[in-house]
Amino acid sequence: MKFNAFGRTHAVRTAMLAGVAAVAFVAPTAVMAQDEVASQEEEPEEAELAASGNLIIVTASKREQTLQDTPIAVSVTTGETLERAQIRDLIDLQTVSPSLRVSQLQNAASTTFIIRGFGNGANNFGIEPSVGVFIDNVFRSRSAGQIADLANVSRIEVLNGPQSTLFGKNASAGVISVVTREPQFEFGGSVSATYGNYDLMVVKADVTGPLTDSIAFAVDGSYNKRDGYATIVNLDEKINDRDRYGVRGQLLFDNGGALRLRAIGDYNKIDELCCNVGNVRFGPTAPLVFGVGGAIGNEDALSDRGYLNTLPRNEIESYGGSLQGDLELGALTLTSITAYRELSNLSNQDVDFTSADIVNELRDQKVETFTQEFRLTSDFDGPLNFLLGGFYFDEAVEQNSALTTGANSRLFFDLLADAPAAARAGRAPQPGTLGFVESQLGLPTGSIFSQGPLTAEQFSLDNTSYSAFGTVDFEVTDWLTLTGGFNYTKDKKDFALAQQSFDELSNISLVDAFIVGQIAAATMTPPSQIGPAQIAAFAAGNPAVFGAIASAATNTAVNPLLGLTALQFQPPFLNLPNSVEPGRTRDSDWSYTLRASAELTDQINAYVTYATGFKASSVNLSRDSRPSASDFTPALLSNGAPSGSVILAPSSPIRDAGLIVPNLSTGSRFAGPEDATVKEIGIKASFPGLAVNLAVFDQTIEGFQSFAFTGTGFALANAGKQSTRGFELDTTITPIPALVFTFATTYLDANYDSFTGSAVGDLSGSRPAGIPEWTIATSATYTHELGSSGNNLIGRVDYYHESQTQLLDGLPDFIDRTLADPFAPARDIAKQYRREVNEVNASLTLALDMGLEVSAWVRNLTDDRNLSTIFPGVAQSQTISGYPNQPRTYGGTVRFKF
């Protein structure tokens, strides 16, 4: 049998119809459980494959093809598998797709998708996703708009490696494509109810049918509510709950003519208390938390017990609509997909993760997205076929956020300020240091860390991009096809960032305060009367004395004020755009794909691919956004750290333009583009009872956009080069029609080939954290027919494994400036924290011929607990926190299909 990348022969269509019922229970690589009538015209070998469940149909190449003939590394999960495995959202999808990793961070909106070790960006709405998520061909730009419960899904395809020539929105790491069921012209539907532990209640319903001979409708909805499993001890409340619902309506126009239209509208709402944070390690500040009457969790991060002064509320609202039209023009098909979506995310969290009222954060984010895609596809009988498309993307992001200091903040930081002196004297820290500092610096009494606003932030981003893309297939012979593809992307981002920092201490340069004090003493002038003119005159008239004062001011062993640097969490922010920083990026790129695919035998296909991908610049929409080193050069302390001095700052564009503010340091406003390259060899074989897919690849990303939490903000930087070599093996074994085994594994040899500018120093030559070397997803499904009644008892067990891996590249608050390599401790401490995943899931379903199904299920059967990642404690030096995974859950589901 022979298929090209664009069309399908008559034999494909008939074999698919015959085999689709048998395929329904294949997982994870199974597809399309539809009620179709078998045709008598299939070819013999295709009939055998269909009957064995090995004829898999996918649309990874934007056309229906068998999985065997799709020359792309793709894994497929059916709606049937989603139901059997109780996979409710994309977060759970990784347990059946080993090349995909999904992690949820501090709130429901912060979910990161990673393929083959590449992915980032969920914590910052300015970061372009490396993994593109498409739902019914519509690009979802933010993870907050992707994680709603999966309803009425036909299948989910995970495409590994850069995808540029088939998707208008270039994706440098891969694509997750969710395909839902279309409206049907035969009345039907289903309703289900689930109850589980933690008082889980899930209700789903869908109905479809004809409105006229040419218009069909579909409506589905879901409601998911569950108590939390993590206890906030001091508040006697549960968090990590579920409280979400969604509705969706569809209309399909299909009169058998040239034009076909599908309209979809949906609304989803999440209002949850998320997410639980476990305490991994006590830092030296932990006793101070207790000293102000608070508490912090013990060092058992998996105990599901924590302390907060307020519950972490997260509200997400996502809605939108799309219209897809397909117009057949003889052997050509013109497709148009128009979509508009809105997303809002509101979170309010206690970010110090203690019961003391120290620091809280509010984020209010809104995203409006419009996309338009056109595709022209050929289906010629001759050797040449093509796809040509255009994609337009227009998005506006707004974020208003703030940090607030609480009732215990002043006392906590006062004790922290006295802690070094107390340690030297062998006594407990005492309050009074901040009051003394205020008196010496001329600040109002009680102003430092007073209760109230700490920062107020206003960020905005406008992103417009367009791309042209396409592929051409040329059948050289009956068994060899050559493919060439391209993507040209032009991307424009304009951004504005502003922040007001209200803390009195953070607005003062401690180096400059020392200099002013010394000049005031030398000239017997009140410090309040020492301004820029007086400083310049003193330096000009007394260069040697001024040099000595400057040297002392930047010497950590001489200037006593420098001990307060650790308390300057939120210094003044340099707003942009400004006269030096325009607040914009302009990117363009040509990506391409070259592929040769061959039908070696009727059962074995192979392909060789060389492809490139691209991701445009990302913007650091956070309070840790700082000028680049080319725009600003800070004065340094004796230990090499930025001094924060305005007086001593050397010439730079920002200083020379008069834009410098106290305590300004360098970092990044944005990270430049990513350029991905993959070399891949794949073999796909399908025999009666056995299907095997193997892909061996070498994938690199130049300029990988690394994004790391530093304890007070986010560092965004381009790694020089990150690479991953490895293979993906995916098998389905059907020894008898009733029994299906699947085994999928991914091996990744990942490396930072070059990354000198990370937040924890030079990572070149090291393995990136969070990427397991081995990942395994395997399952067994047995269907026992109860006599000849058509009733079945279906048992399924699946197992997911990640080999032990380091959780984080490094922890910045362990940096020690007294060492030759000050970043070494930050990297070394992180090496102590690793995880291994071993998750077992199971279900047993009684499926009656009349449409009723009753299931019992359990996820994480062995209650395997681990941390998805760790991060530095906020405002608590050398404290380490982490996000635990979900404990064992179980329940029962009753479903009726009609």
UniProtKB/TrEMBL annotation:
<comment type="similarity">
    <text>Belongs to the TonB-dependent receptor family.</text>
</comment>
<keyword id="KW-0812">Transmembrane</keyword>
<keyword id="KW-0798">TonB box</keyword>
<keyword id="KW-0998">Cell outer membrane</keyword>
<keyword id="KW-0732">Signal</keyword>
<keyword id="KW-0408">Iron</keyword>
<keyword id="KW-0406">Ion transport</keyword>
<dbReference type="InterPro" id="IPR039426">
    <property type="entry name" value="TonB-dep_rcpt-like"/>
</dbReference>
<dbReference type="GO" id="GO:0009279">
    <property type="term" value="C:cell outer membrane"/>
</dbReference>
<keyword id="KW-0472">Membrane</keyword>
<keyword id="KW-0675">Receptor</keyword>
<keyword id="KW-0410">Iron transport</keyword>
<keyword id="KW-0813">Transport</keyword>
<dbReference type="InterPro" id="IPR012910">
    <property type="entry name" value="Plug_dom"/>
</dbReference>
<dbReference type="Pfam" id="PF07715">
    <property type="entry name" value="Plug"/>
</dbReference>
<dbReference type="GO" id="GO:0006826">
    <property type="term" value="P:iron ion transport"/>
</dbReference>
<feature type="domain" description="TonB-dependent receptor-like beta-barrel">
    <location>
        <begin position="297"/>
        <end position="861"/>
    </location>
</feature>
<dbReference type="InterPro" id="IPR036942">
    <property type="entry name" value="Beta-barrel_TonB_sf"/>
</dbReference>
<feature type="domain" description="TonB-dependent receptor plug">
    <location>
        <begin position="67"/>
        <end position="175"/>
    </location>
</feature>
<dbReference type="InterPro" id="IPR000531">
    <property type="entry name" value="Beta-barrel_TonB"/>
</dbReference>
<dbReference type="Pfam" id="PF00593">
    <property type="entry name" value="TonB_dep_Rec_b-barrel"/>
</dbReference>
<feature type="signal peptide">
    <location>
        <begin position="1"/>
        <end position="33"/>
    </location>
</feature>
<keyword id="KW-1134">Transmembrane beta strand</keyword>
<protein>
    <submittedName>
        <fullName>TonB-dependent receptor</fullName>
    </submittedName>
</protein>
